[in-house]
């Protein structure tokens, strides 16, 4: 599994906080003796930051972007502009900080609420209800990491989309009705997740120095 995309994400944030410029993605692949050709040139990408086992930021895009541009952009946006969390600063650059890069693929509209696999598929919900539009997603790793059932995942997906008022025991019926009537759209997708902690990044950074 590649470390290069994650070390590049770390490098982008690290150099921003220190007022320098990041090393190119190609150099990260070269130093780690990995092949950039093993990955698509463009893809939807999400970057996630965790510290001490807790989420510190997660933002990305479902639009396909050049890998280098997408990882660099969302490494910073997720670290510094996720309004749910305090921006990551120099003081947070320690061994407890971990970055994950997830490349998304194989988007499939599904007509059954349970036509997806925990740990394999991410979910995206889009629905229109009472004049309001709701949108939310969970990456493929989330349900497994949280030890959620499918019913749990769908319930928390509604909360993620900022839709309240649906009790957990009504969730399956709500999805069935919405899918059948066409006002709720559920999409599953695959995701390749790569991760690296700050200590590992520092080892890569040493190798990147001229």
From TrEMBL:
SUPFAM superfamilies: AMMECR1-like (SSF143447). PROSITE patterns: AMMECR1 (PS51112). Residues 1-205 form the AMMECR1 domain. Transmembrane segments: none annotated. InterPro entries: AMMECR1, AMMECR1_dom_sf, AMMECR1_domain, AMMECR1_N. It comes from the Eukaryota. Pfam families: AMMECR1. This is AMMECR1 domain-containing protein. It comes from Suhomyces tanzawaensis NRRL Y-17324.
